[in-house]
């Protein structure tokens, strides 16, 4: 199973103009050039003119340099930062509904170890959430799978450069 | 400052951008824009199909370097300009396309003649806009022209909902002031100036090379770099190949011009690149039609790649030196640094390389067998005669296929912006509307549209536009009764099993059809008739002319690199195959 933590994946933090259709332009570019997106998260920034798109890209589908350059040709893309795991802080959120009819105590133990949260409980199932580094979430998900996951949703990773670390950046003027 | 509605503001904005002609076709959603066109000094050319409007805008842009403009309505009109937009995108043609759109409130309701124009054209435009308020029109037009013409040029589309240009809508009025309209493009600033460090590294490679080739593409035309290129060539003595998109940027008559490389390039141009130790790529993009099998392309060559679009560097072939800059500025910088390094007095001796190239030129010139008695015309012969009998500054356009390759091979291009064709997208039917666009820009020059019978039947109706609007282009119709290039592939690679390629020499009757469209029309079938009909055609300037040249059906374009094959597997004309075999034998032993 490929997960955001794999070495063939790279995180790009893309500052875009906060305008209609910009996400579609980014998604279109990836589709048109055959680049794979592993995960993608979009949200406004503190400056209302811009949004930040955090994209985890599969660099086996194309060289990262080509992906970055093609992306930067989009008129609405203002700045691209390449975030390596050692120079950035990364977080992801997962919510999962797990079977707990027979092994509820084991699941609760996992929740405890990972410092996850319980969001909902029924007689046979539990909904849990975990926020953390993507690799930690990978581990948690793998362990939960042994118990049977009904539904799982991950946000995709978001990331910012570590304070004091200057990421490799492409920007205009 | 004037109080205008959106439609008036749009037309005024086009005037402010210096637009002298628009190619268009009205319809429901764009109707309000057509009203102020009546008072505008801008000429409106009414086409017969929106695809024609797009290609005319392209032809105008190719010929002048200024952005071509087309205006069409929503829905099917917008989808009809998709082909020209894609064409302009692949060939980096500056173009602004204005499409009508249903009223803002109707967008998303599947309204009559609604389609998602900006969605459909997203990947085939450099950028597109959906304008949502009348007062945004001036800044959007300004941004569209800026984006279309700066950096790597390309098509920009502006989609305009009907309500914001509607003279009856009070909200469509605002205080118009073009000069103060502000382009908000925080993410757009193309690199123009070359990096001196990269120029220095390029110069070092040039001074060490023994077998250099200047691999010149359409980017040098876009950068208006022909003079700078000539200076660089004369300074360095480095031979030049000009790609299909660059024919004319360097004179074919120059002793250092090797002509066109690629799938149907001549032997010397193809092999100069293959055997080169330094390719200096200027505004060219290592297209598959140039490189053949990429792993076998120019295996010993280092690469200097100048392109204003940094994404071209390393897209196909990894350069040793990448220069992201305007080609003209980069060429001038190279010449300047070379002069500082003692050029031309102590430049390396390229004579061994040049004599090898001239040996190839002597042994493997472009060639064909002339028609024998009773045989129909050879297309190569027709193009040679057209070339020799037409004025020096003639502009030539072509469609796509065999006639295009013959035109590029056999015309002698000695001036920039005299050759206009569809290289990247390979759009059949490009020739006639592109010729109309070019002739609109240069009414006093001869414009020959060299066209095939397949292409002619796709866009021939634009000759009605040409006749009615007084744009007297000339069409040389190479009628070989087949989709010639497809037939060539079926002959060569599908055991002569012809499938879906036969048209007809006689249907339609091209002379009658051309006359019905208001053109003068002639037909030639034998070599003796050719000069006379060309002379007649060149003498007519009051209406378009169509000359149908009835040509043999089985002629093949040589040389040819088979699709997917290496450039080393070039198939030459049958008459040169013994010589090629001997040459291969001698290099082995």
Walk me through the structure.
The complex is a heterodimer of chains A (173) and B (589). With 173 residues, chain A is an alpha+beta fold. Chain A folds into two domains: 9-88 and 166-171, ACT domain (Alpha-Beta Plaits, 2-Layer Sandwich); 90-157, ACT-like. Chain A, domain 2 (Alpha-Beta Plaits), CATH 3.30.70. Chain A is built from four helices and ten strands. Chain A has a five-stranded antiparallel sheet with strand order 2-3-1-4-10, with helices on one face. In chain A, strands 5, 6, 7, 8 and 9 form a five-stranded antiparallel sheet that branches. The radius of gyration of chain A is 18 Å and the shape is elongated. The model of chain A has no long low-confidence stretch (mean pLDDT 90). With 589 residues, chain B is α/β, with parallel strands linked by helices. Chain B folds into three domains: 2-180, Thiamin diphosphate (ThDP)-binding fold, Pyr/PP domains (Rossmann fold, 3-Layer(aba) Sandwich), CATH 3.40.50; 196-359, TPP-binding domain (Rossmann fold, 3-Layer(aba) Sandwich); 379-550, Thiamin diphosphate (ThDP)-binding fold, Pyr/PP domains (Rossmann fold). Helix content of chain B is 38%, strand content 16%. Chain B is built from 23 helices and 20 strands. Chain B has a six-stranded parallel sheet, sandwiched between helices. Chain B has a six-stranded parallel sheet with strand order 11-10-9-12-13-14, sandwiched between helices. In chain B, helix 3 crosses helix 17 and helix 15 runs parallel beside helix 22. Chain B is globular, with a radius of gyration of 25 Å. The N and C termini of chain B lie far apart (80 Å). The mean pLDDT of chain B is 97. Chain A binds chain B through residues 16-17, 20-21, 24-25, 28-29, 32, 49, 63, 65-66, 69-70, 72-79, 172-173, and chain B through 118-119, 122-123, 126-127, 130, 147, 185-189, 309-311, 313-315.
């Amino acid at each position: 199973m490929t997960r955001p933590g794999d070495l063939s994946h790279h995180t790009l933090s893309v500052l875009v103009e906060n305008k209609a259709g910009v996400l579609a332009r980014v998604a279109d570019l990836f589709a048109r050039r055959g680049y794979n997106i592993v995960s993608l998260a979009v949200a406004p920034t503190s400056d209302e003119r811009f949004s930040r798109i955090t994209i985890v890209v599969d660099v086996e589908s194309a060289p990262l340099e080509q992906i970055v350059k093609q992306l930067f040709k989009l008129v609405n893309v203002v700045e691209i930062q390449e975030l390596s795991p050692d120079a950035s802080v990364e977080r992801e959120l997962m919510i999962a509904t797990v079977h707990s009819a027979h092994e509820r105590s084991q699941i609760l133990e996992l929740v405890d170890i990972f410092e996850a949260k319980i969001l909902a409980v029924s007689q046979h199932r539990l909904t849990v959430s975990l926020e953390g580094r993507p690799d930690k979430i990978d581990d948690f998900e793998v362990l939960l799978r042994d118990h049977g996951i009904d539904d799982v949703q991950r946000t995709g990773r978001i990331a910012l450069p570590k304070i004091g670390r200057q990421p490799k950046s492409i920007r205009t003027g | 400052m004037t109080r205008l509605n959106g439609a008036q503001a749009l037309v005024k904005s086009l005037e402010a951008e210096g637009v002298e002609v628009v190619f268009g076709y009205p319809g429901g959603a764009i109707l309000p824009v057509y009203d102020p066109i009546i008072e505008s000094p801008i000429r409106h050319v009414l086409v017969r199909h929106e695809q024609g409007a797009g290609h005319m805008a392209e032809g105008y842009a190719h010929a002048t370097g200024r952005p071509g403009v087309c205006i069409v309505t929503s829905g099917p009109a917008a989808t009809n300009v998709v082909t020209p937009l894609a064409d302009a995108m692949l060939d980096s043609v500056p173009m602004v396309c204005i499409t009508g759109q249903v009223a803002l409130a109707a967008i998303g309701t599947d309204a009559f003649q609604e389609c998602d124009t900006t969605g459909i054209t997203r990947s085939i435009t450099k950028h597109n806009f959906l304008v949502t308020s009348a007062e945004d029109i001036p800044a959007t037009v300004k941004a569209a022209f800026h984006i279309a013409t700066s950096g790597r040029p390309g098509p920009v589309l502006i989609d305009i909902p009907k309500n914001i240009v509607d003279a009856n809508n009070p909200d469509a009025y605002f205080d118009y002031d073009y000069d103060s309209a502000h382009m908000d493009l925080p993410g757009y600033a193309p690199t123009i100036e070359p990096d001196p460090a990269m120029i220095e590294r390029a110069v070092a490679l040039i001074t060490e090379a023994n077998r250099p080739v200047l691999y010149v593409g359409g980017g040098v035309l876009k950068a208006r770099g022909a003079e700078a290129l000539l200076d660089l060539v004369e300074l360095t003595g480095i031979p030049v190949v000009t790609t299909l998109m660059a024919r004319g940027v360097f004179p074919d008559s120059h002793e250092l011009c090797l002509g066109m490389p690629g799938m149907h390039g001549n032997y010397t141009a193809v092999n100069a690149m293959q055997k080169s130790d330094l390719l200096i790529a200027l505004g060219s993009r290592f297209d598959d039609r140039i490189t053949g099998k990429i792993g076998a392309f120019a295996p010993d060559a280092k690469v200097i790649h100048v392109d204003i679009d940094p994404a071209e560097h390393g897209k196909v072939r990894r350069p040793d030196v990448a220069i992201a800059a305007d080609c003209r500025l980069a060429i001038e910088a190279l010449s300047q640094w070379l002069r500082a390094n003692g050029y031309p007095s102590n430049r390396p001796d390229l004579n061994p390389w040049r004599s090898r190239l001239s040996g190839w030129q002597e042994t493997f010139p472009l060639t064909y067998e002339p028609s024998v008695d009773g045989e129909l015309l050879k297309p190569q012969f027709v193009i040679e005669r057209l070339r020799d009998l037409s004025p020096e500054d003639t502009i030539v356009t072509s469609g796509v296929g065999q006639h295009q390759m013959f035109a590029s091979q056999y015309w002698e291009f000695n001036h920039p912006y005299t050759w206009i064709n569809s290289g990247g997208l390979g759009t059949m039917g490009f020739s006639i509307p592109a010729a109309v666009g070019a002739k609109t820009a240069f009414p006093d020059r001869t414009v020959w549209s060299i066209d095939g019978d397949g292409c002619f039947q796709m866009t021939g109706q634009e000759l009605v536009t040409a006749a009615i609007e007084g744009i007297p282009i000339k069409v040389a119709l190479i009628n070989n009764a087949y989709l010639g290039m497809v037939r060539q592939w079926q002959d060569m690679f599908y055991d002569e099993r012809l499938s879906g390629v036969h048209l007809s020499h006689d249907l339609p009757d091209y002379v009658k059809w051309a006359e019905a469209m208001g053109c003068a029309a002639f037909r030639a079938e034998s070599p003796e008739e050719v000069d006379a009909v060309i002379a007649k055609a060149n003498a007519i300037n009051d209406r378009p002319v169509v000359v149908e040249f009835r040509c043999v059906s089985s002629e093949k374009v040589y040389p040819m690199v088979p699709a997917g094959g290496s450039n080393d597997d070039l198939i030459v004309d049958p008459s040169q195959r013994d010589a090629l075999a001997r040459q291969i034998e001698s290099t082995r032993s």
